[in-house]
Protein 1
Amino acid sequence: MATYREIHGKPIKSLSTDPSVSTDEGQIWYNTTSNTFKSMVGLEAWSSAAALNVAREGTTGFGLQTAALCAGGETTVAVGTTDEYNGTGWVAKTAMNTANRALAGAGIVTAGVVFGGFASATNTEEWDGSAWTASGTLNEGRNSLAGLGVQTSALAAGGQPGVKDNAESYNGSTWTAETALSTARVGAAGGGASDTAAVVFGGYTSSPPTVPTGATEEWDGSSWTAGGALNTARYALAGTGTLTATLAFSGQAAPGRSDSTESYDGSSWTTSPATLATARSGLGGAGTTSAALAFGGTTPPISYLTEEFNKSVTVYTGAAYSSVANMPGARAAEGAGSKNGTKTAAMNWCGGPGFSNTSVEFNGTSWSATPNYPETARHVGGTGVEPAALGVGGFTGPANLNTVAEYDGSSWTGGGAYPVSQYSVATAGTQTAAITAGGGSNTTTSNDYDGSSWTANPSMSSGRSFAGNAGTQTATIAMGGSNQPAGECEEFDGSSWTSGGNLASGYVGESTATGGTQTAGMMCGANAAPGGAAGSAGYLQTYDGTSWITDASLGEPRSNAAVSGTTNSNLAAGGYGPGAAYNNAAEEYNVGSTALNVKTLTQS
């Protein structure tokens, strides 16, 4: 019988601790501490990732898992929204020249191309990493088509209206008609590194009734040949990869949407043990067969979800919020918090329903009552650390407040009165060095606090209420607000306010929980439209001093929460939503991590 060394060309190692870095899959070693044989085992898995800026279906994408682009799609109308993924989250980029849906794309994040679609069926636009430029038009206008390749060597195949078999190749400026597909289809996907080495698969062949197909065809630059069929016939799926290493995932099967993932080796498809957490159709995809990305689509409803696929000996755990002990009582929304505290030392006070003076603190495990706040109110501004918190202003029902209260770890005492009676005063900094921004009916006011009295700052350029802020007296960012439909932000340097990067599109930052610094700011939970008409948003956004990027979603989407901590370690508590419900849930955020998939070998 052959030995392990003869088969694999390497010995079984003897180690006192398991390896901390990746080794070859299948490598076996003997752990002398546990007296066990162990091995590095490969995994295939999908994991949750940061949400898209805008929920959409009928979108397209291209690039790698750590450098991908999502372009166009449909909310209730076609959009030209463009988002870039950097392996952590999505950043809003320049919109396409033509809002479009059911289009196709090809390329990399710095050199891509999109084509076809409902809005302009012959349209082609090229992406250079920062802007879109119109290019040569398709010969055959179509939507719901397959696309693949790179910017200077792309292929378009199939689509509608009707059920098309047409194929065209793109050289970076013009489209040329090619040999037709053997099977006409709509809603197919494709993979391939160029317009001369490609594979097209899935789609539907007639409608009505809609008949999904698993048919696969390979293209060599001049003709199509049949390949192995998908194990799950489907359409409106996503695909990525090359002719001999392709990945197909999700899509509309019969019946229902599929969560299945399949890989193609140039001759046959193999179903992966990894399934998407959320089955959907009309989604976008990017990446390779070992590191792919799925985003958007419809379940229904239309989705902003993103998932990462990895085939590796490394286990990936995405950044996520997880539930901790709920705050006591129903007094859960529109309260204030110690935003510069930590997720193991946080405070929350006042809020609704109705009005409250209750104050509580969190030690990382449980909540406990502290002495009551001096006012029975909601919409109180809050900042500081636990146990040195600061409350500013608020609303009692009949009247606004100019009350300022300080907490010393055992009691609340009055501080220097705020210059004006006001509610929803965005407050940042510390108890002895705080700064405010806006409040009330879209005011532009900003003031500094030194622990006893207030000093006026220059006014903001734009009035805002139900906004947030973060940072210090000389380095502040004011975020969003109820009259900022594009999520406009401003930065303060101690002497003047200037424009900062806008919040992720679609979320205006009204009634949001905010914290961090001017160059590492954060917000989580917000109304998705002024006045909360579109409900509340659940995901975290972080700011690097230039732009906002999406991150993990709250388990309970809500507005009017309070936050304590930093961009990579925080606690969100209370809020309003989902729906019209007051919320006393608390969740803590943890950054993503990786670990080797080490298995102990046993004899059976």
Note: The mean pLDDT is 92.
Protein 2
Amino acid sequence: MGLSATKAQVSEGGLPAVADPAYTAQLISPQSIPQVSFQSPDPRTSAIQDSINYALHNGLLRIGTLINSDIDFRNVGTITTMPDGLKIWQLRISVPNSRALGLYYDAFHLPDGVKYFLTNSTGKQILGAYTSQNNTDNGSFATEKVQGGIINLEMDISPNVDINAIKFHINNVAVFDKATAYLNQYALESGSNLKTTSVLMPYDSSSPCEVNAACATGFTNQKNATVHIEYLYPAVHPRYVYGATGVMINNTSGDCAPLVLTASHVEPTNQTSNATFSNWIFYFNYQTPACSYSGAQPSSSQSITGASFKARASYDSASNKIAADYLIVQLNSQPLRSYNAYLAGWDRSDALLPLSGTFISFHHPGGDVKKVSTTSVVNPNGNFNGGGTNTHWALTWLTGGTEEGSSGAGLFNNSGNEIGILSGGVTDKPSCTTPNSSGQEISDYAVYSKLAYDWTYTASGSTPLKNILDPTGSNVTALSGTTACGTTAVLPVPNTVAGIDIYPNPVRDILYTAINQQGSAKVNIEVYNVVGARLCSIVAQQSAPTKYRLDLSNYSAGIYMLRISVNNTLTVKKITLSR
């Protein structure tokens, strides 16, 4: 099972053209950008769906609501042609009083020479550039959530690009009311408090009895292997976006394939086509930076869009009886090195008697930041709704618990190897009776589908798990984990001057620019915000290597552009101001 050649689904970074002062004066005013507006979904309808899911105990977590749309690049927006031939397409999408918006595409094909960006209303959050590297065979795509009720869309089109070759159609706008906490940081405005505080939400969508993942002693690799999954399955629920948990998992070939193991029941229609998973979004490091943390927001999420199908156990949604419960997909690209991703090890050993030791699970209950649950005894004789005999590990949590959204989480043993996949639990007599913000109580009893049982499972046409995790046929019982083979993002910049060092980046207050220029040179350093306004500058005549100091303490957190001109040769750097 080698890693197949595929388009990368991470964005390449950079800044939209509207952030360049050379273009700002020639663009229409932000107030004149065409806008497509939608009415906010009725929260009562979403609450009813949540109640149905909770009553059925189907393990499904709704985190957002879909609005049908018909947004085509050719029919909406405005195109401005710059003197140098660059075409800039702009559009704004608005859904008032929303915490966050996401976009789903049923046609997405960008020719070489096109860069696509998304920003929020404050300009603090920038997604992109998305390019031809994000194209998929079936045209299906999705982009990560944007803070607030407004998304600004921009497409920068090089002069030599045939516009007719661009395929771009948004068929759904997603309005999120869960899994949005990390976006609060982008609502900050300079010199003011949080913008539109009525639609912001702290990271409390799970029960107060849950424990932050950062509180775990050890098991750092297993925490880094755990991801939050955002997905659709329109065949059954075409109106909603769902959330679950998965684990990046190792295989015996040593090819570092970015496999993600989750539960089959989170996608209950038994789909096996790659098209089903091409718009799934996988979020890494959605977690607080410390055990006890009361900051404005948890650490920012990092994501990859799209995966291909590898194997699954079939799921009987009518009876909700589960024997094997596994679904494994392969991400469409390797995670960036900055994600610190890990491919967890596994152990398919079975047992006749209860196991003792330290057993730990990381998960995203209620779509919340990553949590951790622990226990010391695991019973090998569990089952899920009578779906079989000895099919699941059964346990009672000593710390934390599980909820909707935790499904698919891994159960790790003392050695840090995954031994099971979370199918569900019960909340009949929870040790913690404090519910989450949607009224769902924590479950202190859980059952995890055994890798030992899943290993050779073939019922109803299912693909055995061993085919994917042991493609070499080694027949090993356990495999250690390994650091994921992350890639390095390449951020293109114009005519770069050699010998320039920018640090620290991200920066809190003071930014230093060191220029190793030999001989006399005229130096001009300017700081711009993302809408093209110049904030400060330094002009100097330099005759030897020099370090310049810029005080940014008066500016709010967000993305800025540093323009450095040395003897009229320009370098542009993106800097992040963090508070």
Note: Helices lie at 21-24, 43-56, 220-225, 274-277, 451-454, 466-469.
Protein 3
Amino acid sequence: MRWGVRRIAIRFALLLGLAAIVPLLAYGVLSIRSLQRGTRTSVVEGNGNVAARAAEEVRRYVRTYADLLKALGADLQNTGLQQWQQDRIIKNFVLQFPEFREITLFDSAANVVATSRIGRPRTTIPRDVPPTMDGVGMSPTFSDDELLPTAVFSAEMRQLGAPAGWLVGEFRLEQLWRMVDRIRIGSQGYAMVLAPDGELLAHGAPDKKALVAQRRNLSAHPLVAAILAGSDVKTPIATEYADEDGVRRLGVGTRMLPLGWIVVVEQPTDEAYATQFALQRQLMVAIVVALLAMISVGYLLGRGFIRPIVALKQGTQALAAGQLDARVDIRTGDEFSDLGDAFNTMARRLSELQEGVKRQERQATLGRLAAGFVHDLSHPVQNIGNSIRLLFREDQDQETSDVLRRTIDRELGTLKRFMEDLRNLVNPRPIERFAVDVNPAFAEVVEASRADAQRAGVCIEGRFADGSLTIDGDRFALGRVFRNLLANAIQATQSGGRVTVITKRVGDRVAISVGDTGVGIPQDRLATIFDEFMTTKPGGLGLGLAISKRIVEQLDGTIAVESEAGKGTMFTVTFQSRENDAAASAAS
């Protein structure tokens, strides 16, 4: 019972868990997806803001020095200074702003007017550089002798609207490195600045500094390629990708106007989505805990709910096994309790009905036995009584007396066999086995039964197999079986009918068949034809076939019947064959 309760309770708990897990999973999936979308949007927006602020800081940094160069040009142009004074002002400016390595003032003919450099200046007037910062142009970046990124600022000098010369300054972007190094996203996120063509100008990661010195071009970088291919230069672009080390990263990049530089902020996705992953784990743990709690509650509730059902099941099985005294004890105070009371009432009623049926069966059996005894014993008893009365008459001759004595002996033998059948039915005697040839043993029974067959107007036909059919058996016991089968066949066959006896070999077995053309046996009676006290003859006890079946089974044989109402019946007995010279000699 305990295992039955546990098994059903587990199924009940799993059913509740399944009913709970569907909405939980749906809620979990929707929550996780919403969390992923919200977290990604939040992270992308945050990193985009960092990139935008970094771009603005870099732009102000570059723009500030461009404005300083432009202001210097205005000072040199409008004060009527001498050339040596202009030269001194430029040198002092470079000393004050060391980001400018060199500043040179050219006239309209590209001749050097003043320079901060002692000796011939290295800078020249950059050509094809449009003024992008209020009249100040900036050349593409390049690396100087110290492998620092450098650019050239150029401001055109004008007097009365006409070109008056150029002020050119070589500007080192060393400060840009420091600015980029200060930008951090978490503990592993860094920023980098690239030229418009994708050349790396600055990188915040310590292990990536060498790439700047190598003038590495990152135009093939997934994010940089997307920015270069994009038409919208104002909106940051975000994407996820695997870097050259195989680390998944989230990158957000934007263009920096008017220089066209690209600012990228990238961060490992494990760190960027750390909050999301933590919330996902918490959500999954909450779902699992809720599911386990639901299963536990379902298991506990299931045990209490299923126990009355299991009790009723076991009570029903006990009733089915014939234990009519089985009762159930259900005290739940609900419909199960009413069902248990109804079950107990049914069990008591069945017990009462069974006792009534047993009484009726005993009465019917006694009546059937009494009728059978009267039927089977009345004829031989009457014959014995008549023969005894006639035997004591003084006018009887010797021949008549002998006939009467033989009649008494025959009927006494019949009564004796009747008593032996009853005793063998209750306590069968063991059968000793010897080699028996079926053909002569059955032939004797057939010859002894011909007189009864002739009186009934029935013809007996014997078809015996050639040679010997030897089996292990008892000749007297087999004779009883054969006599029962022949007697039943003759009694079931009407005058003019035929009884056929057949012996044959079927593989390694011997088969004996007794068939008749009599009234047959109804199909609903075939299943019980070998039971004790089951008979189709009026007044019979129904012991012949039961005893015959018991004898056949004691000899390890089988007996079967085939019948069709109105056409006849065929009984077939089979035994294991015992064919060797010694057995044949013993049987003969």
Note: The CA atoms of residues 223 and 239 lie 6 Å apart.
